[in-house]
Amino acid sequence: MHRKSELLPRQTHWITVGILVALAFFPCLNPGEFLIDVTFMLFHYAYLALCWNLISGFAGQFSLGHAAYYGVGAYTAGVLFMRFRLTPWLGMLLGPMLAAALALAIGYPTFRLRYHYYALASLALAEVMRLIFLSWDYIGGAYGIWYEPVLRYSWIDFQFTADHRVYHYIMFAMLCGALLLTWKIRHSDFGLRLMALRDDEEAAKSLSINTLTNKLAIAAISAGLTAMAGVVYAQFALFIEPDSTMSIWVTMDMLLPAMLGGLGITYGPVIGAFILIPISWALRTFIGSTLQVVIRGVILMLLVAFMPDGLLQVVINRITRPALIRR
Amino acid sequence: MLIQVILNAFFLGAIYSLVSIGLTLIWGTMKIINFSHGSLMMVSMYISFWLWFIIDLDPLISIFIIFPLMYGIGYLFQRFIVMPILEAERHAQLLMTFGLMLVIKNTVLYVWRADYRIILPFYADLFFRIGEIVFDAPRVIAFTAAIAFSIGLHFFMTKTSIGMAIRAVAQDSEAASAMGINVYRIYGITCGLGTAFAGVAGVLISTYYPVHPDVGTAFMFMAFVIIVLGSMGNYLGAIVAGLIIGVTEGITAYLLSSSLRQAVAFIVFILTLLLKPEGLFRRVLRR
Amino acid sequence: MALNNVSFGIDKGKIVGLIGPNGSGKTTLLDVVNNFLDKNGGKVYFNGEDVTDLAPHKLAYKGIGRTFQVSRVFEKMTVLENLLSVPAKGLSSDAKFQRAKDLLETTGLVPVIYEYAKNLSGGQKKLLELSRALMLDPDLMMMDEPFAGVDPAMLDRLIDLVENLNKMGKTFLIIEHNIALIHRLCNRVIVLDEGEVIAEGRPEDIQHNTRVIEAYLG
Which domain holds residue A232? Predict the structure, then answer.
C-alpha cells in the first residue's frame, strides 16, 4: 500500500498543470497588453483564492475579512515607495509580517472559541481598517496613493509599465509557489492536523493536537501570502485606495472561487478562479458593478445550498462512493 | 458639552439594543449568526422613508406596518433560508446569511442609489432644554419607544408561554423538544420577532439618522460587539450592553475622532473575547 | 447533568467499568476528566501528577486517550489520514506509518484504508475511532460505549483488542450498558446515579447491590 491517498484521478492533475503552463507561455504569442493583463489577473485571483483556502478550506476557520491583509500588503508597498522612497520589494517582506501580526492578533482571542467568532472578527477587522485608512491622510485617505511612475521598466522600483509581461511572470511564479506550498501542506502532518481540527475540534484535542497553535500558524501563513499579492497589485495598478483593497467584495473575490472550485482541495481555488473570474468580468461589463455583486451574492447562496464543498469535491464524492470492491 | 454627547449617545444606545436583541435571540435559539440582520434593518429604514415621502406617513405610525411586515419576512427567512441549512456544513450557515446580506444591500444600492435620504418628521425641530442640555424630540421619542419595546419584550419573555418556550429552546433545544415544544415553530417565531425588532429599530432611527445602504452594516457591526459583550443569547444582556456601547462610542467620537468610533468598538470586541469571552452576563463557554 | 462529589481512583493495568442509568453523568464524568468541562473545585491526578488544569490536548499528550459515545471520526478524511493526523510522540515518519498499518490490520480496516471516513458503517467508525486513539499509545484509554451498535464479528475483535492491550499494560475506563460485556471485561465497576457514585466493586457484587438495582428500575 502507498502512503499518500490520491483521490482525484490523475487526469485532473495533468489538465490543470497543462492549462497553467499554456497560460504561462501565452505572452510568447505577443497578444498585446490587454490580454496579458487578463492572464495576470487570472493568476492573481487564483493565487488569492489559494491563500484564502489555506485557512478557510483546510483549517475550516472561515475568514470573511481577508481583504485586510491584502490591503496591508498593498499599502505597505505604496507607503514605502511614495513616502520613504524605498524599494517596494521591501514591502514583500514587511507587508506579510504586518499582515501575519494582524492575523495572530485577531486569531488568538477567537480561535479558542467557536468558529463564528473568527469570522466575525475578521469581517470587523477588514471593515475597521478600511474606515481608518479612509480617514488617515498620511497615507492618502479616501484619495488613496497615486504612484509616480519612475522609469518605464525598473526592477528596483518594481514597476514595469513598459512591459506588463513581467507582472504576468511574477504572478505566475507566485501562483506556482502557492500551489506547491498548498500541496506540501495538504500532504504533510501539519495539513492532516488542520483538517482534523476542521472536521472535529474536540476529537482532535483528545488526540493531543494543539488546535490553537495550528490555527494560528496557518492564519499567519495565509495572511502573509495574501499580503504579498497586495504588494504586487499595488505595483501593477500604481494606484491604491481603501475601497478597492479592503472592502467586502475583495474578500468575496477570494472566497467565491475557492468555494466554487473546492474547499480544502489543493487546486480547487485555481479551477474556481478560472471559471469565475471571466464570468465576473463579463457581468461587470454588461450589468455594472453593483448588480454584479448582487449576482455573485446569489451565486454564493446557491453554491452554499447545493454545492457547499465546491465542484471538485462533488467530483471526488462521485469517485469515492462507498464501493463494495476496492481498487 | 460632554454631558450632551453622553445623553445623545445613551439615546442611540437604546436603538443599538433593539437591533442586537434580534441578533442575540436568533443566535440563542438557532446558533447561527444572521449576517443579513443589519441589512434587513436598513430595508425597513427605506420602507419608513418611502412611506413618509410618498404618503406622508409619520414613521412612528409606520411601525404598525413594519413590525408585522418584518416579522413575516423574518419568519420566511427562517423557513426558506435557515431551515434547509440548519443541519448542513457549518460554513453553510455562515456564508448563506453573508451572501444574503450582500444581495440585499446591493439590490437596495442598485435600486435606490447611494444618495443620503432624510426623514423630517413634524417634530424634527421640537426640543426642550434643561439648563445647557438639549433634548431633541426625535431622539427622545425614539429612545422612549425603544425602551418601551425592550420592556415589552421582557414581559413577553417572562410572562407568556411562547416567550418562556423561546427561552427554553435557547437554553437546551433537545430538552425543550422533549417537553413537547415545537422547536421549529419557535425558531420561526424567534426569527420573526428578532427581525421585527430590527425593523422597529430601523424606523425609530430613521427619524433622525440618514437613510443609506451602508447604515445597516454600521449598526450590524455594533450589534456584533454588543451581543458578545452582553453574552450571546441573553436579550437582557444585549439591552444593557447596547447602552454601554452606545455611550462608549459617543464619548470616543467626541474625545478622539469620529472615524475612530468603529475602531474603538472593534477594540472592545477583541478585549471582550480575550478577557471575558462569555460576556458580562454569564453563560460560560466551553474551553 | 451535574456531578456531585464524585471521587474514585483507577489502578494501573485494570479495566474499570462505569455504569449507571441514562443521564446519570457518565459521559459528563469523562468530559470533566478530559477538561472539556469545568471541574468546579475537583481535582484529577494521573500517574501521581496533578493534571487538573491541563488543556485537553496536553492531557492527551500525557497519555489519556478517549473515544466518544457517537463516534467522532474525521469525516472528510480517509481512514489512513484519520490515523496519520495524530501527532507522533517521538516517532519517525516510518515508524508512525507502521503503527498505523498495524492498527489497521488488527482492527481489520485495511480494505477501507482509502475510504472517506464518512462512508464507513457505524461499526467501522467505532473501530476507526479506537485505532485512531490508540495511535497515541495512551496509558489510560477512556471509552464511551465502544461496543454499542457493533456487529458480533467486530465485537469479538474489539474485545480481543481491549484484552490484549490490557495484558500489555494499558488501563481502561469503559462506559458500557451491556452487563455480559462488563462481566467479561471489567475487574471493577463504578456505578453512577444522578451524578453521584452509589456503588463500587467487583461486577459480581455490584449485580446484587440493591441500590444499583433500584437506580436502574426506579
Answer: 10-319
